[in-house]
Design a protein that fits this description.
354 residues; alpha/beta; Aspartate Aminotransferase, domain 1; Aspartate Aminotransferase, domain 2; 2 domains; 7-stranded mixed β-sheet; 4-stranded antiparallel β-sheet; 12 helices; globular; binds pyridoxal-5'-phosphate
């Protein structure tokens, strides 16, 4: 079965060998405060920073999921309230989770075919953290690169970005925001159970000012451990090992990003040419990594069923678009050959129905 599911998604085929190497190497049985583990963690962080072109002054911590990152940010980086811009299910969930911990946090919804207005975002200087979802996996929208750089020019507030379904798939202006995070079962092409939290000096300073150390995953406690190449709790050593191996294997992000964007442009062109309707009309806010295609409930159900019979797994719709869209992951681990197979299938379905 070829999978285009946008998470968990296709893992790099090399992972099979890396799993066996991990076992053979003995790393899975060592204590996480021992030298071999610390060396492995350090090397993984270094190769990830280098391949993703993350600024030297930014720090990387591994946690368990993007959802955990929501919790860490709410506990440790927001003293009283944050502002959440959202146009879909994941942005909304982030707001809801945060409000359970910091009830004064507020949301601002914007249309899925438009960008949020920067003057609205920065109007309340009391918002300690501006929370943005780079890639809204539920509806296939994304904020363009230029949006982050423009926002950064106009505010010195801490900006946190959920880039769960785009980090390792496209390039980012890292310095235009302070916290970036992703879980690895999307663009990293890795099995689930690990997330990457990237923090700027400004984010670290804010965490220090707030001083939260009340939880096992408090930002400062996590950071203290990572500065020693350790972790607060017994970590997912296999996940970290696999992340290091895959990062060593992949091309630098500039080259991956170029390929992702080229493939995305080809996808959008192909879909339009073959009579498929793309959920998002406005080209500027279409995602490069998750493509949402809309149709009637019956059309979508039949297409997914027929795809499955042809050995292809399409992504279900999500949230409000659960039954009236299907999603196509455009993640780096998917090969051109697999994309061509899906295109052939979609073309023949379009001809059959025409
Ligand atoms: C998948 C996803 C999440 C949740 O990731 P988990 O690893 O399940 O916690 C959060 N935000 C976005 C944008 C996602 O795509």
């Amino acid at each position: 079965m070829i999978t285009f599911y946008p998470g968990p998604s296709k893992v790099y085929p090399q992972v099979e060998q890396y799993l066996s190497d991990a076992y053979q190497s003995g790393i899975l049985s060592v204590n996480h405060r021992s030298e071999p583990f610390m060396v492995m963690l350090k090397e993984t962080i270094e190769v990830m920073k280098s391949k993703l072109d993350i600024p030297e002054a930014y720090e990387i911590y591994f946690c368990s999921s993007a959802t955990e990152c929501w919790e860490i940010i709410a506990q440790s980086l927001i003293a009283t309230k944050s502002l959440h811009l959202h146009n879909g299910a994941f942005g909304e969930k982030w707001l809801e989770y945060t409000q359970k911990i910091k009830p004064k946090s507020k949301g601002f919804s914007f249309d899925k075919n438009s960008l949020p207005i920067i003057s609205d975002i920065i109007s309340d200087q009391e918002d300690e953290v501006i929370c943005l979802t780079h890639n809204e996996t539920s509806n296939g929208t994304a904020l363009p690169f230029s949006f982050f750089t423009e926002l950064r020019e106009q505010t010195s507030q801490v900006i946190a970005v959920d880039a769960t379904s785009s980090i390792a798939g496209v390039e980012f202006p890292w310095e235009a925001a302070d916290v970036w995070y992703a879980s690895v079962q999307k663009c990293f092409g890795l099995p689930a159970g690990l997330s990457v939290l990237i923090a700027s000096p400004r984010a670290i300073k804010l965490a220090e000012k707030i001083g939260d150390r009340d939880f096992y995953n408090s930002f400062l406690f996590v950071r203290d451990n990572f500065l020693k190449y350790q972790t607060p709790y017994t970590p997912n050593a296999l996940g970290i090992y696999l992340a290091g191996r895959v990062m060593r294997q992949v091309e630098p992000i500039a080259s991956i990003s170029k390929q992702t964007k080229k493939r995305a442009a080809e996808w959008y062109e192909f879909l339009a040419e073959n009579g498929y309707s793309i959920l998002i009309d406005e080209q500027e806010v279409r995602s490069d990594t998750v493509i949402a295609v809309s149709g009637s409930k019956d059309q979508v159900a039949n297409l997914k069923k027929s795809a499955k019979e042809n050995g292809i797994l399409l992504g279900n719709g999500y949230g409000a678009w659960k039954e009236t869209t299907f999603r196509i992951a455009n993640f780096p681990a998917i090969t051109q050959n697999e994309i061509d197979q899906l295109k052939n299938f979609l073309k023949s379905e379009a001809n059959r129905l025409a």
